[in-house]
Design brief:
Elements lengths: L1 E4 L2 H7 L7 H14 L4 E4 L20 H18 L8 E2 L3 H12 L13 H9 L16
Parallel strand pairs: 1-2
Antiparallel strand pairs: 2-3
């Protein structure tokens, strides 16, 4: 099972292999492949995606504004999926739920958590292209 913080449910929708460091990208690539097959447990604070950033200095993953972004994302994802998603929830990111989330993301419905994010313009351009280059896609035919 993969541990994800709230706002990373949005980030994974547009992940195309860009990130903070080579180690971060390598880790995210490995997680994107696993996400096609494994469930997700929502956690508070740093998660499996953050892991490569935690070893040095003051990682932004621990900042209050990032925790607020998580809260905002969980509310939006809950509304979009029609079920409460909170810390401790276990999710199956199947083809249908990811399609709903991507449609809502592209239409700006679940983007409040993205305000003031350095990656916002990149994610917007990826959504505008129909998520063509994304590295996370649920496995077709597996119920995911």
């Amino acid at each position: 099972m993969i541990a994800l913080r709230g706002h990373h449910l949005l980030c994974l929708l547009t992940y195309v292999g860009e990130g903070y460091t080579r180690a971060f990208v390598a880790n995210y690539d490995a997680l994107a492949a696993r996400l096609a097959l494994e469930d997700v447990r929502i956690v508070a604070g740093p998660d499996d995606i953050c892991a490569p950033l935690l070893a040095g200095g003051e990682a932004h993953c621990r900042l209050e504004r990032v925790a607020a972004r998580d809260d905002s994302a969980l509310l939006a994802v809950s509304d979009c999926l029609g079920r409460e998603v909170r810390v401790g929830s276990v999710l199956r990111l199947d083809v249908g739920s990811v399609a709903r989330l991507r449609t809502a993301f592209r239409n700006g419905i679940i983007r409040a958590a993205c305000r003031d994010c350095a990656w916002d313009s990149l994610c917007t351009s990826i959504a505008a292209t129909g998520f063509r280059r994304v590295r996370f896609n649920p496995a077709p035919g597996s119920g995911r």
